[in-house]
Amino acid sequence: VLMIDDDIAVREALGQSLELADLQPLLAGSFVEAKDHITSTFDGVIVTDIRMPGRDGFHVLDYATRIDPDLPVILLTGEGDIPMAVRAMEAGAHSFLEKPCAPSDLIETVRGALARRAEVLETRRGRLVSESGDAAARMLFGTSDLANALRDRVRAVARADGVVLVTGEPGSGTPKVAEVIHLLSSSSRHPFVKRAAAGLAPETLRLSIEESGAGTLYLDEVGALPMATQFLLAETLETSGCRVIAGTTRDLSGDVEQGRFNADLFYRLDLMRVRIPALRERTEDIPVLFRHYVALACEQANLKVPDIPSEIFGRLMAQDWPGNARALMNDAMRFALGLGETEETTGLGLSEQMARVEKSILIDALRKTQGNATEAAKRLKLPRKTFYDKLARHDVRAEDYRADDRPEG
Question: Dihedral, CA atoms, 126, 130, 131, 132, nearest 10 degrees?
Answer without folding.
Answer: 110
